[in-house]
Amino acid sequence: MHKTSKKDFEFFVAEFKKALHKLGLNEWKVYFIHSNLKETSRANVCHDGGVWVATVRLSTRWDEKPTHNSLRSSARHEALHILTARMMFLANCRFIDSEEIRQESERLARILHRALWGDEDLFEVCVPEV
Fold first, then answer.
1. CATH of span 2-117
2. Where are the domains positioned within the chain?
3. How many CB atoms lie within 10 A of CB 18?
């Protein structure tokens, strides 16, 4: 188990902000937290598309040693979830299974991540069964 440092967190936040700016998502108010995540993910984002607010968390514990590339990749991936946040909010206002919405958001984030930044070996695109 490896730990992310305060400098890692600062780098992650800066990279997240760059990605959000690149995507043109300037209407969002974003808060950042550096804490242990219970799940095995390196980072996550919670958002409310109704009020354009998000909280991004960087885990203090990673399975692998954090590098600038892995921190940048994680920040970019989480920024892409902001891109889909409004769609998720609107979809949740309808009568759709929330797990289907989450899976579609993850699929879209992975596709966009690969298309915008390359990182082909980091994220495998999940295609839902038909």
1. 3.30.2010
2. 2-117
3. 14
Half-sphere exposure of 1 (CA within 13 A, CB side): 7
pTM, full prediction: 0.77
Q: Would you write out the chain's pLDDT as a tens digit for each of its 130 residues?
A: 899 999 999 999 999 999 998 887 888 999 999 999 987 889 999 999 889 899 999 999 998 999 999 999 999 999 999 988 888 887 787 766 778 778 778 877 877 787 687 765 555 544 444 3
Residue 111 DSSP SS3: helix
Using DSSP's 3-state secondary structure scheme, residue 10 falls into helix
Own/partner pairs, 24-32, CB within 8 angstroms, 24+ separation: 25/79, 25/82, 25/83, 27/52, 28/52, 28/53, 28/54, 28/82, 28/85, 29/53, 29/54, 30/54, 30/55, 30/56, 30/82, 31/55, 31/56, 32/56, 32/57, 32/58
